[in-house]
Every structure is written in structure tokens, then in C-alpha cells.
Amino acid sequence: MKRHLRIHTGEKQFKCDICDKQFSESGHLKNHMRIHTGEKPFKCDICDERFSQSGNLKKHMRIHTGEKPFKCDICDKQFSESGNLKNHMRIHTGEKPFKCDICDKQFSESGNLKNHMRIHTGEKPFKCDICDERFSQSGHLKNHMRIHTGEKPFKCDICDERFSQSGHLKNHMRIHTGEKPFKCDIFDEQFSRSGNRKRHMTIHTGEIPFKCDICDERFSHLESLKTHMRIHTGEKRFKCETCDVRFTDSSTLKKHSRIHTGEKPFKCEVCDKRYGLLAMTV
């Protein structure tokens, strides 16, 4: 009863000597101290992963058992943790309780707000161990690492071409479907990719917002500036797996690779002769 009354009084008599955080129960302080000591007394008997709290071990065990005790009453989707169900419910309610103090954009999950804030702070805590490029989100780093590993887990079911990112596969599929969902605001021209539409719009707006700090050359897109900067830094992150020659951009590597593969995608419409490169000469 004495412990229970602290819920109503707000009394927190147990204090951490390291960070001054206070707790209403001694057991809560004991659990908290493991953050500082690194102690992890609870071990999974299946994979030997260790945890600082018994509750975290209990949640972890559901990975092995497949248990999902928390069920959505609307769509019957099930979850292994109550917090995941709580976040899921916001899909149905439309609730977005986490708000950015800078631009007022709202989010359904605190983690999404945290990731968003890095747009304003410029924080990039995730670093590639190979080329030192930094990223604001762990998922972006994961995608980037496939440049170095060559992993392409996403495959087209029609032509078997493989891609390192799901978005690239999605864009590729429009070659087969002919879908062009992105339309020019001025003319009726349509595009299969949003980036192509964005590039096209600069023809009408004349906008060239990205400037090189070294030579003052300007670009209409950030990716074009990033590629250009490698001229100054000498960075050549794209390596040929066959002969180890390195290149500053992926498109040049792709062209180079045709030397090894013998691929000749460009065909003369008159005599059917094929070429590995498309070049215009006067």
C-alpha cells in the first residue's frame, strides 16, 4: 500500500547517484542502474543473447516462439509487443501525437519524429565503414552498403533483372507496365519516375539551386551536385568486380562493365548492328 500511494503523491525517494534520475520503487532504480553498469543477467537459452531486464527477455523469446498475443480489433493483425499494436492502431485512428517544433509536421510514431528532426539538425549518426559517407537513418546506410557488397535482393519477375533497393525495382516495373504516374504541371508530358518529372520541371522554372562551393558550377538536383563533387575529391566509390578499376559514378561503371559482359544494348534500326555505348558525333 505504501508503494501504491506513491502513484498518487508522485514521491520518488530512490535516486540514481550517476544521472540523478529518480524512481518511486527501489526495484526500478536497480533495473535502471544496469544502464550504467552494463550488467545483463537475463540470457536467452536459445541464442544466448543477454538482456538487462527480464521483461526484455520475455519480449525477445517471442521471436523464437512466434507468439503474437496483441491483436488489432479492427483488422485482426497481430503483434508480439503491446507498443507495436499501439503504434499500429494510429493507422486506423489517424492519430499523430508527435509534432515537430520547427515545421509543425506530425507523426504517428516517436521514432519517425526523431528521424525527421535530423533534417533540421543535419545530424548523420550512421557512418559507412568503407567510404565514410554518413547517413541520417540506419535504413539509408543499409541501402548504401549494397553499393560495396553488390547485393541485389530485389528481382523483377518478368525479366529477372535484380536491384539493390525496392524503390528501384518499383521504378523498373513501369518499363513493363508502361505506367507513367508523374505529370508535368504545364504540359501533358508524363513520366514513369518522380525524379524525371522533377528534372523536367526545371526546364520550365529555370531553377538551379545546388551550387558547388569549389568551382561555383550549379545543378538542378542534389544528386548531380554530389556526383560532381567527386571530381574535386577524387573519390571513386564504384569498383568493377572483374578488373578492380574504380569510377566516380555508377553509370560510368555500368558502361565499363559491358567490356567484360559483351552486352550491346544499342541497335541500329537500319542494319541491326549493335553497340555497347550510345554516342552522338558530328
From TrEMBL:
UniProt superkingdom: Eukaryota
Claim: DNA-binding is one of the keywords in the record: yes
GO molecular function: DNA binding; zinc ion binding
Key words, A-Z: DNA-binding, Metal-binding, Nucleus, Repeat, Transcription, Transcription regulation, Zinc, Zinc-finger
Chief localisation class: nucleus
UniProt cross-references to InterPro entries, sorted A to Z: Znf_C2H2_sf (IPR036236), Znf_C2H2_type (IPR013087)
Residue ranges occupied by any C2H2-type domain in the UniProt entry: 14-41, 42-69, 70-97, 98-125, 126-153, 154-181, 182-209, 210-237, 238-265
Pfam family of the protein (one): zf-H2C2_2
Gene Ontology CC terms, in alphabetical order: nucleus
SUPFAM superfamilies: beta-beta-alpha zinc fingers
Subcellular location as annotated: Nucleus
PANTHER family: TRANSCRIPTIONAL REPRESSOR PROTEIN YY, ZINC FINGER PROTEIN 143
The family this protein is said to belong to: Belongs to the krueppel C2H2-type zinc-finger protein family.
The name this protein goes by in its record: C2H2-type domain-containing protein
